[in-house]
Amino acid sequence: MDNYKKRSNKSSKKPKKKKIIILSVLAFILIIAAIGVGYAFSLLNKVDTVKVDKQDLDISKTIDEQYKDVTNIALFGIDATDNEAGRSDAIMILTIDSNRNNVRLSSIMRDSYVNIKGHGEDKITHAYAFGGPELAISTLNTNFDLNIKDFATVNFSSLPKVINDLDGIDINLTSGDLKYINKYIDSLNKVNNTSSPNIAGTGVHHLDGTQALAYCRIRYDGGDQERTQRQRTVLDALFQKIKATNKAKYPSILNELLPLIQTSLSSTDLLKLATNATSLSTLEQDRFPRDDNAKGSMIKGVFYETFDKDLTTKQIHDFIFEDKK
Asked: Where does the UniProt annotation place the signal sequence (predicted)?
């Protein structure tokens, strides 16, 4: 079985490792919109652009024709820390709705039991390893009848730097978070030669980059369901912090963020999205499959998240295309 090898316009680069989705295209779209088209266009050359073959994405033509005002972008994160380089540790769909003037973010459970073209039934997280972003997008489109055409993948190591540049974010920590977060902080300090302090109690804390990354990595309190919620919590905190940040800081943030992003979106595409994003004011979030129709199942000794595919597809469509929950 051949694993995916990226086709990039920067072929001399080694494949990036330690990637996750927390710093998504959403953040720099907002920044680009604020700093102006001319300067933003020059900065966008820093992005690692990857071409995808639209013919291999299995885009739903019916859905694409019906919802022309809704743009969906697949967001993938690759976390090599679990010795599973190439698998998408986080999968989200960023929806930009120009008709309703809002942004919606859907998390897809990484253990979801789906059909992957050419590989049969498996965890959705494996699609990226089997065939890169093209197969991962195809898997989302074919299983949930979607019209995703583009993607973005973001380097895991970028999270602490950008959060520190923004002077931290506020996160409400539970007793479950506190039970594990300090172990992750200690591990990150050791790997990155940093000295972020441990956290002593529950409640709202102002987290630095290392502490926020540690929070995102917690997986033993509430499983993958709660970890995806923590990722969305941090993303929303970033979204709000960037909106409140002095625009004079935006160019320096982009200088740090853009080289860490791999995307099929061209500079022109990004600027178009940024222009549309100037009027977007809310970020709505959900997770699929939902708990009401999903359960953990052991199949041939392997854990999967099994679910009612027809019901989940309807719920995803209601949320993404109709803004209903």
From this structure: none
